[in-house]
Design goal:
The protein is α+β, with helices and mostly antiparallel strands and 347 residues long. The strands form two sheets. A five-stranded mixed sheet has the order 2-4-5-7-6. Strands 1-3 form a two-stranded antiparallel sheet. Strand 4 and strand 5 form a beta hairpin. The longest helix is centred in the first third of the chain and has 56 residues. About 4% of the residues have low confidence.
Length: 347
């Protein structure tokens, strides 16, 4: 029998047999009838030990077979029949292990699908400017180009390379946030200074567009200044790109005992109703997006804010909203609003 190959069972069986022989021999030396009775009792105990051990190891073998089927992804396996003694404890632990393994397997499948989709999106996003770069380079190879045209093509080539550089940098930041390797610092800074730092890189482009930036802030901000500036900058940049020349972007910020709130508003076209549920998705481009947009700025901003236990919400400003500037209220123009909240504790 297979279970007799177990050295522990063989040793136990030999020990029981030796003790039974000794007991029966001693009984025979005292009295023959008593010896017969003792021999029967010892034989009965050995048989019971044999049967109980056989039954237990058969259940263990069945449990091993069930585990093997679970590992081979058979889902219709029930472990409820193992409901006694150590087998019940073992069944409970195996059930918990099985649930955890299936959860991990599902997450791995989702990660593979997500990785494949991300690689496809990234390759598509990079292929577009690379195609344009190849086209520009082919034009630059022409000998009859004028100096002015050559300068235009070189400037366009520089812009395309800058876009690729920005895309790669943003993707590296997103990958760090996805991997959980970013440790957000706890720094304190006045909110107004934080907003000024965040907006400083786009002040020149806004001036070239004739746009106005208004900042009203009171209180202090607690969090990672560098990463938060990155998030706010991406949102302000999105507002700038969707606001016409001469438009206005206003930022209002305040802090209370529960949270620090930052509201960024513009008087541009607003966000299409179909785009609102997807505006923070990676590589998503809305109907009013610029052709040069990659669709990852707002996704990166959301990841940074959520990573600091904050929330961000996008919505449209209705026509009935009362704007501060008389020109904005006169033409009834709509716009977009982004509301950011950084909570100071667990709510």
């Amino acid at each position: 029998m297979k279970f007799l190959r177990n050295s522990e069972i063989r040793r136990s069986l030999i020990l029981y047999l030796v003790l039974s022989i000794l007991a029966a021999g001693t009984a025979w030396s005292w009295n023959r009838r008593f010896g017969v009775l003792m021999s029967a009792v010892c034989l009965l105990f050995v048989l019971l030990f044999f049967l109980i051990t056989y039954r237990r190891y058969r259940r263990i073998a069945e449990l091993s077979a069930d585990i093997d089927r679970i590992l081979h992804e058979e889902s219709r396996i029930s472990l409820k029949k193992y409901a006694e003694g150590e087998l019940a404890i073992l069944q409970c632990e195996i059930y918990k292990m099985t649930v955890r393994l299936r959860e991990q397997q599902q997450r791995l499948r989702e990660d593979k699908i997500y990785l494949a989709d991300s690689i496809a999106d990234i390759s598509h996003q990079i292929r577009t400017p690379l195609t344009s770069i190849n086209l520009v380079l082919s034009l630059l190879l022409e000998s009859h180009l004028s100096r002015e045209r050559r300068q235009e093509l070189i400037h366009e080539l520089y812009e395309l390379l800058s876009r690729i550089d920005w895309l790669i940098t943003a993707l590296l930041k997103i990958s760090r946030l996805d991997a959980g390797t970013v440790v957000f610092k706890e720094e304190i800074l006045p909110i107004k200074e934080l907003l000024q730092r965040a907006a400083s890189p786009i002040l020149v482009p806004m001036e070239l567009r004739g746009q106005t930036l208004e900042i009203e802030a009171d209180g202090e901000f607690t969090g990672d200044i560098a990463w938060t500036c990155e998030a706010i900058l991406n949102i302000i940049k999105n507002c700038m790109e969707h606001t016409g020349d001469g438009g206005t972007i206003s930022i209002h910020a305040e802090s209370n005992a529960l949270f620090t709130e930052i509201r960024i508003e513009d008087n541009g076209k607003g966000i299409a109703k179909e785009d609102l549920p997807h505006i923070f998705e990676r590589f998503y481009k809305g109907r009013n997006s610029d052709e040069k947009s990659f669709g990852i700025g707002l996704a990166l901003a959301r990841m940074i804010i959520v990573g600091q236990k904050g929330t961000v919400k996008a919505e449209n400003l209705g026509r009935a909203v009362e704007f501060r500037q008389s020109a904005r209220s006169a033409n009834g123009q709509t716009g977009a609003r982004f509301t950011i909240r950084f909570y100071k504790g667990t709510i």
